[in-house]
Design a protein that fits this description.
Layout (H helix, E strand, L loop, with lengths): L1 H53 L4 H19 L1 H7 L2 H26 L3 H8 L2 H13 L5 H18 E2 L5 E2 L1 H24 L16 H29 L16 H6 L1 H25 L5 H8 L2 H11 L7 H41 L17
Antiparallel strand pairs: 1-2
């Protein structure tokens, strides 16, 4: 009798595990779809940024609107977490990340002024290849051979996209700004580890409490908005004090038409898209989705942002489909995909022992290996 009851209990547990597994598969597919949508929106963001600049926005003015709108929305979404967890210590830990974020997007937007959305999108993706080398400088971790191979492929992709051989040997200034943006995005990833964690994303440094992602995101966006506001203010003061500099340096930050651009239909729609969808919504979707998708798989899906950026640029007429675009963009995407696949493979191998322990534990009574403190969403 007892053994029959035990068998019934085990069967019931198996059915429950199967139901949870089916639910998890459904959530996993929905999460991947959300990440794919995020990459599409981010790709479209390059075209909307170009449209906003065409409407009369200066780079700093556009980013001020973008980060301000996103910070307000994220603050509303995560208001309970922020109210519960906010502290000056947390603000100090994340402040530098917000400054780097603002600098990254400023370099990207400046690049867009002197290049095309497709080049801007594809060269920005080089941050995936640059990150392992910055990682070595900070954490003394040697890049893999695949990282070196990816960097060589990426280099030739940038050369194919950016150098104009028909005019001798010239390099687009906008592409140089965009390459600087890729370096800054890589620096932000590394800085997140250095300032917020101890070498693993989301893991607090010794003696410090874990930062909730909602709080971290809000402080980053708020700091980025504050940074761009100070840039706009400084540029306005400089123009008022030295009117002659407007025709040289000032347009790189602000224009006399920032307010008119915000009130124009194309400028308002572009700014709203960038602030509401491309920043606030996408970061929130990414956070939610990565609870059910491994970091490696998420990175591969999100890296397609650059491909969508190039596609939208061609479809909207900002770029012509040329051999140079296909060759350079293909090489950069190949380098990014190579690096992400290697990261995904390494993550899978490192998790194989943990999964084996879980399966063994389930076979012996379906007790999860709680003693191992397994975190499904832990970054590699």
């Amino acid at each position: 009798m007892h053994s029959a009851e035990s068998r019934d209990t085990i069967c019931e547990k198996r059915r429950n595990v199967s139901k949870r597994g089916i639910a998890l598969i459904g959530k996993n597919n929905a999460a991947k779809l959300a990440l794919a949508l995020t990459s599409v929106i981010w790709g479209a963001g390059f075209v909307f940024s170009q449209t906003a600049l065409d409407a009369g926005f200066g780079p700093a003015g556009l980013l001020l609107v973008r980060f301000s709108v996103a910070a307000v929305l994220v603050g509303i979404i995560y208001r309970k977490t922020i109210r519960r967890s906010f502290s000056l210590a947390a603000f100090r830990r994340v402040f530098i990340l917000g400054v780097i974020l603002a600098a990254s997007f400023l370099a990207q937007t400046l690049g867009l002024m002197f290049s095309t959305p497709s080049n801007n999108a594809l060269i920005t993706a080089a941050y995936v290849v640059i990150t392992p080398f910055l990682w070595r400088l900070v954490f003394k971790k040697k890049p893999t051979r695949s990282a070196y191979a990816a960097s060589v492929i990426c280099f030739f992709g940038v050369v194919a996209l950016s150098f104009d051989f028909s005019a001798g040997f010239s390099f687009r200034a906008g592409d140089l700004w965009t390459l600087g943006c890729a370096v800054l995005f890589a620096a932000q990833i590394v800085a997140t580890e250095a300032y917020v964690g101890d070498g693993k994303a989301g893991v607090p440094a010794q003696g410090e409490s874990r930062l909730d992602y909602g709080l971290l995101l809000f402080i980053e966006l708020f700091t980025a908005a504050l940074t761009t506001a100070l840039l706009v203010l400084a540029a306005r003061v400089a123009v008022a004090a030295f009117p002659g500099i407007y025709d040289t340096a000032a347009p790189l930050l602000v224009t006399r038409r920032d307010l008119d651009a915000l009130l124009s239909p194309s400028g308002a729609v572009s700014a709203a898209f960038l602030g509401v969808l491309s920043t606030a919504l996408c970061y929130v979707m990414q956070t939610s989705a990565q609870r059910y998708v491994s970091s490696g798989a998420a990175s591969i899906i999100l890296s397609m942002e650059s491909m969508f950026g190039a596609v939208f640029s061609v479809l909207t007429g900002y770029d012509a489909l040329s051999f140079r675009l296909v060759l350079g963009g293909g090489l950069i995407l190949a380098s990014v995909t190579l690096q992400e696949i290697v990261n995904f493979t390494l993550a899978s191998r490192s998790g194989s022992a943990v999964r084996g322990a879980e399966q063994h534990s389930r076979r012996r009574g379906y007790k999860f290996a709680a003693a191992l403190k397994i975190n499904k969403t832990e970054e590699l």
